[in-house]
Amino acid sequence: MLPLIVVATPAEAERLLDLNARVIVSGVGVVAAALATARALAEQNAGLVISAGIGGAYPSSGLLPGDLALSSEIIQADLGAWDGNQFLDFDDLGLSILPDSPHTGRFAVWAAAPEVARRTGARLGSLLTLSSVTGSSETAAFLEQRFPGALTEGMEGAGIAHAALLAGVPVLEVRGVSNAVGPRDRASWQIPQALAATRRGVAAALEVWEEESESV
Question: What is the CATH number of domain 4-215?
Answer without folding.
Answer: 3.40.50.1580
